[in-house]
From TrEMBL:
Record-linked PANTHER family: COB--COM HETERODISULFIDE REDUCTASE IRON-SULFUR SUBUNIT A, FERREDOXIN:COB-COM HETERODISULFIDE REDUCTASE SUBUNIT A
GO molecular function term, any single one: oxidoreductase activity
Family annotation (InterPro entries): FAD/NAD-bd_sf, HdrA-like
Keyword line: 4Fe-4S, Iron, Iron-sulfur, Metal-binding, Oxidoreductase
PROSITE patterns per record: PROKAR_LIPOPROTEIN
Coiled coil: none
Gene3D superfamilies named among the record's database cross-references: FAD/NAD(P)-binding domain (3.50.50.60)
Name of the protein described by the UniProt record: Uncharacterized protein
Pfam families: FAD_oxidored
Length: 623
């Protein structure tokens, strides 16, 4: 304010002190980088531990603190603010949107039921409509996220602010210590939401977790990461025409999206042995450029910033060799030029926290509903490759399944919810549930749950056992536009006589149904399938054989039974001995015996899956 005369100076001497007085007595927050709105103090008489935190003032205390400006974090913060909470949103980078804006992943993995119902609505649907659909312009998405936060007066946004460590009182999370503008600062809150991609708040707070596929005995396996790259001077009509007529039923193209070129992608031989090119997922931007999701990088420690930066550098070097190949082999890219790459890697998997309930692969592929549903997903179980020798797989394709509130509530630490790809899912279930639309729905639910928790002075853990609390959260979400309709959808495969065997080996990632949920149970067994499920089952059960078991090209019953016995460490000379041993141990059950009477018969997958599943269970139960 500019004071132009003595009269104005006189009033200024009265008004300015009054403004300062009102500021510190009404609970207003300091201005933040984007939004100067108030953060109101409520429930001052509650027994929350944050009330006793040291150095507590009205400008460093919030109802809700959301760590992580990923799409899930934006949804959580906006949801909390719409519920009347004062919210602090902390993001360690320069912009909101994370994977979408800085990772340039502008191709949403949508979740529709097989009847065409859009399952992810609410705040996610607001974002989807604002950016214009499944494929969108990255700069537009950045503005939409910013606008969503700016519209809420009670959100204080801190960009370029990194988490240093959680502040706890026993098992109660009461605050966060951050690095902001070169200084260490502390912020305290009643409730917290970890919306970081890697559970960066939950893990150091003491929440238990696994990494990658550790939970299924594959410690060394984590899905490869991707660096999205941007090209200009592409011929979009030619791309569309080629992908619509290339004879690949999995290729396709539209006005803004295209997908295909599998043969061309997999035929490329990278210079870097830890990189692979696959088929293109292409997202067209408003300026005509395209973003390509296709370059997979292996051997990256996603928790190490230096390793991440080296991975980006490796991919950029590879692009020098890749661009001539693309111009020569990809229709529509004859004149393409590299514009640049994303700032961040697309990391698909890291930590999987353990919560009150872990969503399982059976939940996903049996289309299970949960009484405490707070989101519904349906994306195929897409397990991307973890090494150069691995090509990934689609484990199955659900109609729909629900995410229980319990999967957001971590073990051991109070006042905290975890949303997004590091929520409480098993590694295989995360192959579906990790996608952004599901995570944004979880974020919205977490914001509503935080408001309920504070208002009713009930912990998140207590809410997992309260039908009244969950019903109230569900009703509020539905009132805001969420889709949470109960469902009862039976998977017909559950009636197959060998389904228990399928479930056992599917939980280990060893049998795959693909997009059509076809496990080939009536197909004849082949060498590679049998060798894989036998050796991997033994390994995962902790009882590896002395050497890798190999069989002939067309294994028949005699060879299969002897191989299974050998896997147990039994040296058998005849198939009769193998039958006796496996029958005595309950591996060759009465149900299976009729299928293995003819020594020369080549069995179907169903029989062998059941046999190997029984072997796995036996080994697991035997010290």
């Amino acid at each position: 304010m500019v004071v132009k005369d003595l009269t104005n100076r006189f009033y200024a001497t009265l008004i300015i002190p009054l403004l300062f007085f009102l500021f510190f007595t009404t609970g207003c927050t300091v201005q933040n980088e984007i939004n100067p709105g108030p953060a109101h103090m409520e429930n001052k008489n509650s027994s929350d531990k944050a009330e006793t935190a040291p150095h507590l003032t009205q400008i460093n205390y919030y109802d809700l603190i959301v760590v992580g400006g990923e799409p899930e974090g934006v949804a959580a913060a906006v949801s909390g603010a719409r519920s009347g909470l004062s919210v602090l949103l902390i993001e360690d980078d320069r912009a909101l949107g994370g994977l979408i804006t800085l990772g340039k992943l502008s191709f949403l993995d949508m979740n529709y039921g097989k009847d065409g119902t859009l399952l992810t609505r609410g705040i996610f649907k607001e974002f989807y409509d604002a950016v214009g659909g499944t494929v969108f312009d990255v700069e537009k998405a950045k503005k939409v996220f910013t606008d969503m936060v700016e519209e809420q007066d009670t959100i204080t946004l801190k960009l370029n602010t990194s988490l240093v460590e959680p502040i706890k009182d026993g098992n109660n999370l009461i605050g966060v210590r951050v690095r902001e503008g070169g200084e260490i600062k502390e912020y305290y809150g009643k409730r917290f939401i970890d919306a970081t991609a890697d559970a960066d708040l939950a893990a150091p707070a003491g929440v238990p977790y696994t990494i990658g596929r550790e939970d299924i005995g594959e410690k060394e396996k984590t899905m490869g990461v991707t660096l999205v790259f941007e090209l200009t001077n592409v011929n979009w009509p030619r791309i569309v025409n080629y992908l619509r007529t290339d004879g690949d039923k999995y290729s396709g193209a539209g006005k803004r999206a295209a997908w295909g070129y599998k043969k061309e992608g997999y035929s490329y031989e990278p210079k870097d042995p830890g990189i692979r090119l696959r088929g293109f997922n292409i997202a067209r931007q408003d300026n005509g450029n395209v973003l390509i999701n296709a370059l997979i990088i292996f051997g990256v420690d996603v928790f190490d910033p230096e390793s991440r930066q080296k991975a980006i550098a490796r991919a950029r070097r590879e692009l020098e060799y890749l661009m001539p190949y693309i111009r020569e082999n990809f229709a529509g890219f004859e004149n393409a030029e590299l514009v640049g790459t994303a700032e961040q890697l697309y990391v698909r998997e890291s930590r999987h926290i353990i919560g009150e309930y872990q969503l399982t692969i059976d939940d996903v592929l049996e289309n299970r509903d949960h009484w405490d549903r707070i989101a519904i997903g349906s994306y195929p179980v897409d397990i991307q490759p973890s090494s150069k020798d691995d090509y990934g797989f689609v484990l199955g394709n659900p109609d729909r399944y629900s995410i229980p509130f319990r999967s957001l509530v971590p073990l051991k630490i109070e006042n905290l919810l975890v949303v997004g790809r590091s929520a409480s899912y098993t590694s295989l279930a995360a192959g579906s549930a990790r996608v952004i639309p599901v995570g944004m729905c979880e974020g919205e639910a977490a914001g509503v749950a935080a408001a309920y928790s504070i208002k009713h002075n009930i912990s998140f853990r207590e809410m997992t056992k309260s039908e009244e609390a969950i019903k109230s959260v569900q009703e509020e979400l539905v009132a805001r536009g969420a889709y949470l309709e109960p469902f009862n959808i039976k998977d017909p495969l559950t009636d197959h006589w060998a389904y228990e065997g399928v479930k056992t080996l599917r939980r280990l990632g060893l049998v795959k149904g693909g997009y059509n949920n076809d496990y080939g149970l009536n197909e004849k067994i082949d060498k590679w399938f049998f060798q894989t499920i036998l050796n991997e089952s033994l390994k995962k059960a902790g009882s590896p054989p002395g050497r890798y078991i190999e069989v002939s090209a067309r294994p028949a019953n005699e060879e299969i039974l002897k191989s299974v016995a050998f896997g147990l460490g039994k040296q058998v000379e005849t198939v009769h001995e193998a039958r006796e041993i496996l029958s005595e141990l309950g591996i060759l059950t009465d149900e299976l015996k009729p299928y293995f009477t003819d020594n020369n018969k080549r069995p179907n997958k169903a029989e062998v899956i059941m046999l190997v599943a029984n072997l796995y269970k036996y080994c697991l139960a035997t010290p």
